Amino acid sequence: MGNMVSLKIDGKDVKVDEGLNLIEAAAAAGVHIPNLCYLKGMKGIGACRLCMVEVEGGKAPVIACNTKVKEGMSVATNTDKVKEIRKFVIDLILSMHPLDCMTCTKAGVCNLQQYAYDFEIKESNFTRKKFGYPTDEANPFIKRDPEYCVLCSRCVRVCKAQGTNVLEFSGRGVGAKVVTANDKPLQESSCTFCGSCVDACPVNALLEADRWRKGREWEYDKVNSVCLSCGNGCSISVSTKDGEVIKINSGVAEGAAEKYICAIGRYGFDSLVSEARLKMPMKRVNGELKETTWADAFATVANKLKAAGPEAAFITSANILNEDAILLKKLAADVVKTKNYDSSVTLYSDYDAMKTGTADLEKTDLFVLVGTAPDQWARVLPALDAVIRKRVNESGAKLLVINSGEPRISSAATQILKGDEVKMLEQLAQAVISKGVKAPKEMIEALAHIDPSDAAMAAADLFIAAKSPAILSSPSLYKAAANLSLIKEEAVSVPFEANAKGVVLMGLTSEGKKFKDILASKTKTLYAIGEIPLGKRPDTEFLVVQNSHLTDLAAQADVVLPSTPALESDGTIIDYLGRLKEVRKAVDPAGESHSHADIFMGLAEAMGVSLKKVKDTDVKKALKTKGKAAFSPFKKEKDLDIDGEQFTEDINRSAINGSRLLWLKETEKGAAV
Amino acid sequence: MSEMEKKEETPKKDMKDVFTAVENIKCVVQKSQKFVEEFLSEPMCGKCHPCALGSYEALVRLKRISAGIGNKADVDAVQRIADQMLEGSRCIKGKDTAKFLLAELKGESFAEHLAGKCSERECPNYIMYRVIPEKCVMCGLCKEACRYNAVLGEKRTSYRSGYLPFEIRQKRCVKCGDCLPACPYGAIEVVEEKTAVLV
Asked: N or C: which end of chain A has fewer CB within 10 A?
C-alpha cells in the first residue's frame, strides 16, 4: 500500500489508496454508494446488487464492493440504470418485510428504511410475502426474527470470519432463513453470545433482546469507553438514555479486525444496578456490617492505617485506572508509609513483562502465540482470539501456535509447535538462525547445541517470510519469547487484566511484599481494592474492602467503601498492546459511591495530607518507562502459571452474578454436563 | 448401493434442462411459468437478490396470469423483473432467464391472455372440454378414461330408451386431457372458456 490512485467519482477528482474498492473510495469522496450486504473489512460478495455503478468505457454496470480502484477510472454512482436496479431490489425486499417502522426498534439506523426513503418507495409494488418463521428469543441476549431478514448474510459471514461459525443459511432465494445447526435456539448451538451478528445486521432481524421500548438510536447519548473485564481492554461505545445504560457496542471503527466485544463486555452492564451493588460506606458494628457516612468511614480507616503504618498493606486488582494507581501508590508510600502495596498482576506476571512492546494487529501477517491461549468460548482474552481468527480467515494472515497444551486457537493455526514452550522457542530461534538470519551473538552461542525439528524449520520459514509478525506471549514466557523479538519485531506479553500494564507503568510496584506474600502473612490493616480473586478473609486485624459490589470478601470486611465500576468512572488505562485508552463515565455513580481516585484522596485528607488530582501529563510521563529488550536465557517463570478461565471468572464475579450473564454461565454449565 | 447414495448421484438440473423442459409447450404463458418454475427448482443459486427475489416474484405473477386472474400490472411486473434481472443479476443463469422472459413478452400472447384468450388452448383456466352431442355415439369410453369422474352419461344399450346424454361436468374437470385421445369419434373438443360461456 501507500501508492495513491487518482480517479473520478461522479465527476469529482479523488485520490485514494491503491487497493481500495469503489465503495470505500466513494466514501472518501463523500459519496455514499447504497449497499446491504457489504461489510467493511471483508470481501464484497455482491449479493444485494445495490452497489452497482457504471464505469466509463465498461459494457455493463459493475458491483462497487468488489471492484478495485484503477488509475484514471471514471465512476458514475447514480445513473438511471443503476438507480432502477436499486429501486427494484429494495422494492422486492420490502415485499417480504414487516413494514412496521413505526414501532421498530431499529428505526433510524435501519438501512432498508433509509433506502426506501432515498428511493421513494412508499410501499412495495410486488406481491406481499410472509413466511411465518418463529422468533428465537429464548435467551436474554440476542433476539432473532427471520421475518425482518433481508438475506444479506452479514451475520453469517461475521460469525464465520471470527471462527464462531454458528450461523448458516437454510434454503436459498426468497424463503431462505439464517439458522443455527439443526435450527436450534442459539443457546443450544455453540454461540458465545458475543453479539457480533447484532452489530452487523442492517435491519431488525438481529437485535439485543432487551431493547423493546427502551428508546431508539437517536434518543441515546453515546460515550466511548473501555471494557475492563479482561486483559483485552476492548474499546466500547456505551448508549445511555435517562441515565441508564441501554446497550453497549464495540467502539472500534467499522472494518477493523478488532471490532469485537464478548458477552461480558456487551451484556454485563445490568450488574450496575444489581442487588449486590454498594451504595453507601459500611462499617462493622457489633459484628454486623451497617451503613455509615463517608466521614465516619474515612476517619475509621485513616485511624487504622495510621496505627498500622509500615505494617499496613494494600492489594488491588489491576482493573483500576492509571489515575487510581498513581494515587494509590502515593497514599500507600507517602501517606501511610508502607512498602507493601501490590496489584494482582504479580499473580501471573513479573513487573518487567508488563513493560513490553506493541503490535499493530490490523497489519500483522503472522501471529506467534507463545503459551498464551486466547479463547472466545471460555472467554479468556476472547477479543484476541476473534481478532486473530478474523485476520487469518479474511486477510490471509498466518498463525503459529507454540503451546504445551492444545488450546482452542490451534484450530486456526497454520503451524503448531506442540511441546514445552521454552524448548519450542529455542528450536524455532535456532531454525531461524540456521537459515542465515542475523541474531545477537549471545543467542547464537546459547542455541548452538540445539538441533531444530522439521516443524520448527517450517515455522522458521513462516517467521522469516512474515513482514510484520506479532509475537504474543503469556507473561510467564515473555522473557523467552522476547528473544525472538531480537531477530524481528517486538514481543508483547498478554496479561489477564485490562490495566495490568498501566498499573505497573504507573509505578504501583511493591517495594516490600508482593500480592501473594501479603495474603500469606499476617497484616495489621489490609486494604483490598477492586474485585480480587479471593473469597476468604486473609489473616489480618482489620480489613478494608473497596469495591463496587458486595463480594464474598467484602462481606467479611470491617469497613466497606463503595467505589464506582468502569462505566461510572473517568480515567485512562494502558491495554495489552501498550495503547493508552480513555475510560469515560457513561452514567452517574450509583448512590454515594465514588471513584477509587476520589476515595484515595479523601482518605489522605482524613490523614492530614492532601493529594493532588492526577493530570494527563502525569500518566504520559509514567508511560515513557519502557523495558529494553535484551537477550535473556530461554526460561519460563513457572510459578506464574494460572488458570486464565478461572481467574477471568473470579475478577468478573460480581458482574456475572449480578446480571443476565449468570443465565449464560448456568446454561453453559448445563450444556457441558 | 443404497437409495440415498443413488439420489446424490443424480446429476443436478442445469439451465439446459430448464430449456428442454419447456421445449414442447406452445402457450407462451405456460411456457414462461414452467421455465421459471424449473429455474427456481434447481439452477437458481440464490446468491444475488435480483435473481433470487425477482424470479420468485415473476413466478407469482405468471401464475396469476395463467390462472386467468392476472391484469396489466402483473405483465408489467414481469417485464420489470426481466429488465432488471438482465442488468442486475450476478451470473449468466439469471441473465438467461431474463432473456427468455423478455423474448416471450414480446409477442401478443400476454395481452391475449389478459383478454381471456389462450389461443394455444394450453392454459387450463382459459379452456373447457365439451362433448359434441352431434358426434357422440354414447360408447362410454371417455367416462372410463376420466380419472376424476367428470364425465356424466349413460352408455347406450339396445333395449333401452331415454338415455342420459354424455357431458363433462366442469366443476370436476381438471383439464388433464385424458378424454381427448380416448374418444374414437372426435366427439370431445377444447374450447376457450370465455367463448363457450357466450355461446
From this structure: C
Question: What is the average pLDDT across B43-71?
Answer: 95
**Res. B5: pLDDT tops 50:** no
Cell numbers placing A60: 455493463
Q: In chain A, which stretches have pLDDT less than 50?
A: none
Residue of A nearest to B61 (CA): A127
Distance from CA of B58 to the nearest CA of A (A): 9
Quick check: A49 contacting B, CB < 8 Å? yes
The model's confidence at residue B4, banded by pLDDT at 50, 70 and 90, is very low
**Interface mutation vs chain B, best among A65, A112, A121, A126, most B CBs within 10 Å:** A126
HSE-CB for A384 with a 13 A CA cutoff: 34
How crowded is residue A605: how many other Cβ atoms within 10 Å of its Cβ? 14
What is the per-residue pLDDT for A638? 83
Looking at residue A647, its pLDDT comes to 96
Residue A173 has its nearest CB partner, among B44, B77, B89, at B44
* CA gap A384, A361 in Å, rounded: 9
Task: State the Cα–Cα distance between residues A158 and A367, nearest whole angstrom.
Answer: 20
pLDDT the model gives residue B10: 58
How are the residues of chain B apportioned to helix, strand and coil, as percentages rounded to the nearest 5? 50, 5, 40
Give, for B130, the enclosing helix (H) or strand (E). strand B127-131
The percentage of chain B sitting over the pLDDT mark of 90, rounded to a whole number, equals 72
Residue range(s) defining the domain that contains residue A74: 4-92
Nearest chain B residue to A61 by CA distance is B87
The answer to whether residues A195 and A332 belong to one domain is: no
* pLDDT value of residue B11: 61
Residues A535 and A673 in one domain: yes
Pick from B190, B186, B10, B17: which is nearest to B117 by CA? B190
Quote the number of domains for chain A.
Answer: 4
Residue carrying the nine cell digits 509514567: A622
Judged by CB atoms closer than 8 Å, whether chains meet at B53 and A49 is answered as: no
d(CA A342, CA A345): 8
d(CA A380, CA A371): 13
What percentage of chain B exceeds 70 in pLDDT? 91
Q: What is the pLDDT of residue B199?
A: 39
Start-end of CATH 3.30.70.20 domains in chain B? 124-198
Return the pLDDT at B196. 56
Q: Kindly state whether residues A56 and A105 are assigned to the same domain.
A: no
CB contacts < 8 A, A to B, total 76
Closest among A95, A67, A81 to A9, alpha carbons compared:
A67
> How confident is the model at residue B158, as a pLDDT?
78
B3-114: which CATH architecture?
Up-down Bundle (1.20)
The closest alpha carbon to A482, from A625, A589, A634, belongs to A634
- Look at residue A585 and tell me if it is in a domain: no
Using beta carbons and an 8 Å cutoff, which residues of B are at the interface with A? Answer: 40, 44-50, 52-57, 60-61, 77, 80-81, 83-84, 87-90
